[in-house]
Prior knowledge:
The chain is mainly β. The chain has 2 domains: 71 residues, CATH 2.40.50.140; 71 residues, CATH 2.40.50.140. The protein has 2 helices and 10 strands. A 5-stranded mixed barrel has the order 1-2-3-5-4. Strands 8-7-6-9-10 form a 5-stranded antiparallel sheet, with no helix packed on it. The chain is elongated, with a radius of gyration of 20 Å. The two termini are 36 Å apart.
Amino acid sequence: MVQIGSVLRATVSRVEPYGVYLHSGDETILVLAPEVSWGPAGDLKERFRVGERVDVLAVRYNHATREVIGSFRRLHPKQSPYYQLSLVDRGTVLRGTIVQCIGDEVTVSLENGAWGHVPRHLLPPEPRAGDAIDTTITELNVDERRLGLKPVTGQPPGGNGPVGAPPTVSNVS
């Protein structure tokens, strides 16, 4: 049995659009596409070749099927866009785009790839998907990839508020 949290050296046995299958000893390991990288996974058949040996982190184990669920991206936690946000100074203005408005919150995609939520009552009526918005962080849980945001005071959706060009956090290291 594989110990969860261990790094395994495994061989790619199959590549599908939804994930990569690997073998390590008698174990089958599946890495689903969202666990390939912190950014877009792209075409997995271009990234991996059958027979290639790679390191993979064991994150879950199914005893019935003897299948390990693995992750490549979690081998590099400092590349997480949420970890990068933990390094910015308090009050830093972050540029984002409203992705959707559902119920009491608005989902915002930041320039570095992280997603967060703004309580709808903090925004003017009728925010729309596609609007640019300047925000600051109110809550950040890196492990759970949870991000609370608030709009910069006086900032209407569309990004035409009083704040100048905000810094980009995509290159924080």
